[in-house]
Amino acid sequence: MNQPLHFRALNLEELKRYLKSLDVPAYRASQILHWLHKQHAAELSEMKNLPPSLRDRLAREGKASVLQLVEVPKSGDQGSLKYLMKTEDGHLLETVLIVQSGRRTVCVSTQLGCRIRCSFCASGKGQFVRHLTAGEIVEQVSVICRHQKDSVTNVVFMGIGEPLDNYEATMKALEILMAEWGFGLGGRRITVSTSGVTPKIEEFVHDSRGRVRLSVSLHSSDQELRSRLVPIGKKYRLDELMRSLEHLKKTLKREITFEYTLIKGVNDSEKEARGVAKLAARLNAKVNLIPYNPIREMNFERPNSDELDRFRKLLEAKHIRVTVRQTAGRDIDAACGQLRLDRM
Question: Residue 340 and residue 112: Cα distance in Å, rounded?
């Protein structure tokens, strides 16, 4: 038996071809996608400008939604909401809305679990279940828009999972998010974060034509330490990653950002700061400092504000642009590195 279609996962041409097979005019595809990605309709029955007979036919063969909103705990710091959603096969996933500085940013997950298993991140501590589909990725944004009764300004692929380990679904989701018939978000409003899957980074920059912001998890300028913090660094070495990024910099239309989780007594030394500055200077990259957010499996410590400020100033003294991640959602385990699937 064929799986029901998830209409939210189809692009404009795919939906037109499907409707043609039903002898339905092609213009109906734009109407359907408007309901899904602009109005964030949860049900086909909401699409009142479609004939009832067409809505019934579509409902027999597919559906508008595959995610169920389970829980929305409010963050005590007023900066974020962590949405708990359930997939049709019964698994839970977490998506975060961050409201800061006039921006409404959705942090989407791309996998159920994560195979990268960074030592400081909760997302890889449990079992890896499966990749999310493109439809499941973009529907996370629609669920939040529908709940908030408002649109979002930015989307970051920084939730559970390595986006480039789920490459096809990530690229399809980006197409839907950026297309005029989709969410209509500009590439500068979307960031894809990667742990450093070097061959896929090259493919991603080529396929996205450099339009989307690229963020690379660095976390150490030392090969040995980075490999301990980010195990995939053993396979894709730091020198190889840097050579690739230097080559791709010509294609990228946006600046590269290095994500750097600062862990007290681990990667916060002056030597590390010099090494990070040297790498960032090669790419004219920005460094986004993220003070470590504690997880129960590790005894790493979060740096205090003075230690964070010292590291930042060491980078700035080398003329590196630095931002400090304003941590929202720590009280509900929604901050960077705290998302997990342990309620599955």
Answer: 9
Q: Evaluate whether residue 339 is within a structural domain.
A: no
**Catalytic choice (107, 114, 118, 336):** 336
**94 catalytic residue (yes or no):** yes
Domain co-membership, 10 together with 137: no
The residue-averaged pLDDT of 153-160 equals 97
**Is residue 270 exposed (0-12), middle (13-18) or buried (19+ Cβ within 10 Å)?**
exposed
Q: Is residue 44 part of a domain?
A: yes
- For a pLDDT cut of 70, what percent of the chain falls above it? 92
| Cα separation, 7 vs 132, whole angstroms | 15
Q: What are phi and psi of 82, to 5 degrees?
A: -100, 120
Question: Residue 333: what pLDDT?
Answer: 47
Cβ 288 vs Cβ 325: under 8 Å: yes
- The pTM (predicted TM-score) of the whole model is 0.92
Report pLDDT digits (tens) over 114-139.
999 888 887 766 789 999 999 999 99
List the catalytic residue out of 13, 43, 94, 316. Answer: 94
DSSP for residue 163:
G
Query: At 47, which CATH number?
Result: 1.10.150.530
The neighbour count for residue 209, using CB atoms within 10 Å, is 11
The reply to whether 336 belongs to the active site is yes
The rounded distance, in Å, linking the Cα atoms of 122 and 132 is 18
State the greatest distance between any 2 C-alpha atoms of the chain, in Å, as a whole number: 68
Q: How many residues does the chain have?
A: 344
Domain count, the chain: 2
Same domain, 31 and 86: no
For residue 239, give both structure tokens.
């020198």
